Amino acid sequence: MLEIGAAFDDDPAFGMEAEDRDEPALAFDEARFRALRHEHFELVWRSLRRLGVPAADVDDAAQRVFLLAARKLANITAGSERSYLFGIALRVASHARRAIKRRGEIGDDALAAHEDPVPAADELLDQRRARDLLDEVLASLPLDVRAVFILFELEQMTLAEIAALIGAPQGTAASRLRRGRELFQAEVARLKARTPRNGR
Amino acid sequence: MSDPRRLVEEGDLGASLLSAARVLDADDARARKIALLGVAASGAGVTAASIAARVLPKSLAAALLTKSVVLGLVVAIAVTSGGVLAALSHARSSSVAVTTAPPRVAPSPPVLPAAATESPPEPVEALSGPVAPQSTTPTVQARAAVPSAVDADPAKPAEAPAVASSPPQSHLADEVASLQQARSELLAGQPARALATLEAHQKQFPHGLLGIEAEVLRIEALARSGHANVATARARRFIALHPNTPYGVRLQALTGDAAPHDESAKP
């Protein structure tokens, strides 16, 4: 497991770009921050998890997302909160993934997925196991592709919603989704090939 | 442009993976929200309570805070450490499959019913020095975190920040860092140190944005240092005071007995 504090220890700026840091302090609207966190916490948490943040680190990553949002609260226009938060979540997830690579660590989830042979299909009733396998499968998707894929397949957003959320044309969202699905299917096929068939 | 059919509808291996993630991630996100924020996914009433905890007079706030956190604690422990109170977490055992580690502290069923419901709201003080939840003195720093308290002129909000000695951002960062420390200590098997850290945290950030999480950690630390009974006591007290919140219902399952307030209504 990653050390809990590690994600912060090695990154005093919490992933902020340099130019973001020293902006003038604005009045902090605590009530708005609370409402924001209350309304969007779950989406942010799910997204981080699905964007490849190891399960043990998702709490910290979510904390970080809202910390960053708190710093920029005055810049977040009404109605764009969800999009803004998802954008930060992407950055935080990207940072977390890089940090793992840098340290040469493999997350708990990836380890768990590799510990045992791939289970037979009927064993996939074990949802947790299936969840771990999904991490393994999704690892092959580039982050921007993965983002569209999870929003469509897991959050069940429409392509129009996704395009708005990620601030890209709908055509872009659609092509990322196509790419994501190709990669996903290819990985699943590979997984199936590893799966012992009926009594091995 | 019409959207393509979703893969989860295909009914193959890929679909099973996706459908597991849909369910589990949603469950986990909900549980973690409760644990970290101390608010139920849809519990508007509870949100009000947790917000009120920061606005109300200190003693009352502390009481409210204490209670609203217990549920989070129990869930948090079940999810993150798989330990201490796992045995109490019937409510989530079906969807949170992390409870594999045997409880290190005996859950000791209904041992402290009387104290839980009748004693004045100070059960922890009897316990140990570093844990008194209400021994707080508001610091200047803490006030600075809430610039809205400053006589803000709505017409020119951009000038308000000049008042704050430290910007809220760094304040939040300090809060996070302090809690990270406590958490690390807790995970390192040093609950007593974590408690001391949390006590210092409480003094430094009596009105912190992350007060709820601090309380979660505090109670977790208490439980791990052999005071599981206190967590149960707080749970019961919460039920007594807030019978109609989602927490009350859930806590009732966690404590394994009927809500004390409900004696008369019990079938």
Q: Could you describe the 3D structure shown?
A:
The complex is a heterodimer of chains A (200) and B (267). With 200 residues, chain A is mostly helical. Chain A folds into two domains: 27-105, RNA polymerase sigma factor, region 2, helix turn helix motif (Rna Polymerase Sigma Factor, Chain: A), CATH 1.10.1740; 106-200, Winged helix-like DNA-binding domain superfamily/Winged helix DNA-binding domain (Arc Repressor Mutant, subunit A, Orthogonal Bundle). Chain A has helices spanning 6-9, 18-21, 30-50, 58-71, 81-102, 108-115, 127-138, 143-153, 159-166, 170-194. In chain A, helix 3 packs across helix 5 (81-102) and helix 6 (108-115) crosses helix 7 (127-138). By secondary structure, chain B is mainly α. In chain B, helix 6 packs antiparallel against helix 7 (191-204). Chain B has helices at residues 13-37, 44-55, 58-81, 113-118, 140-144, 168-187, 191-204, 211-224, 228-241, 246-255. Chain B is 54% helix and 0% strand. Chain B has one domain (18-261). The N and C termini of chain B lie far apart (57 Å). The model of chain B is unreliable at 40-167 and 258-267 (pLDDT under 50). At the A-B interface, helix 3, helix 4, helix 7 and helix 10 of A face helix 1 and helix 6 of B.
